[in-house]
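Exercise: predict the structure of this protein bound to BIS(adenosine)-5'-pentaphosphate.
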Amino acid sequence: MRIILFGPPGVGKGTQAQRLAEKFNLVRLSTGDLLREEISLSSPVGRKVEQFLRKGHLVPDDIMLDIIENILLENKERDILFDGFPRNLNQAHSLERSLAQMQQEIDIAFEMHLDEDEIVKRLVNRRYCPRCERIYNLSTNPPKNDCVCDQDGAKLVTRDDDTAEVIKKRLKIYEDETRPLVSYYKSLNIYKQIDARGNQDEISDRISEIVNAYLNSKCTSN
Ligand code: AP5
Ligand code: MG
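Solution:
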């Protein structure tokens, strides 16, 4: 199974991706997390992409597609959940070509939807664990102890791109570059919009219901 989770910054993709990957035993492929790891390691890729993330711009497709290609090959036999990839039509077409070479295709493309005011509220209160990537929110999902990760005790951090100015830019880039994926995935008949209001469990239930229905339909047709 190949599932895409896309939507504007701060809508809750990473939060839901972590839950769904666990529930359905999927490899979670979060391009944002992968890039932040490269940056924290100061790797050659990390040094190349750092300024793009800091400014809220998309990383150039050639860099992104190289990374994805390798991960797809490493995980040929696994079910994959894409969090934050593809981000534009060029990436979407490349992903399809790569999957087709392995006789695979995308099963469902979920777009999470939420009003901009709510998105901004979620982002300004976000903290994350740089060690295990767990996501918190000081208002809706705070850590048990002030500013340290419940799981591994690492000090929680604010992302460099969670400033008012960069959030605005990321939202604009989403509208201009990523939103066209909606009509594209509708045309392929694999698009599902998810209402991202409500608590994390409610949203997980909405997504899981669709995944379960899809899995059942596959069982019946085989
Ligand atoms: P990426 O890391 O993917 O960032 P993003 O798309 O901007 O999305 P976020 O991670 O900010 O938000 P999210 O939707 O995951 O929300 P979260 O679950 O954290 O990408 C970062 C950068 O990397 C890009 O700007 C670009 O430079 C580069 N990049 C990445 N992929 C790329 C690609 N394919 N091509 C080119 N460049 C790429 O939740 C947000 C907050 O809300 C948290 O505090 C959370 O606790 C809280 N929350 C979650 N759910 C709820 C809820 N139901 N109720 C209340 N609060 C909630
Ligand atoms: Mg994320």
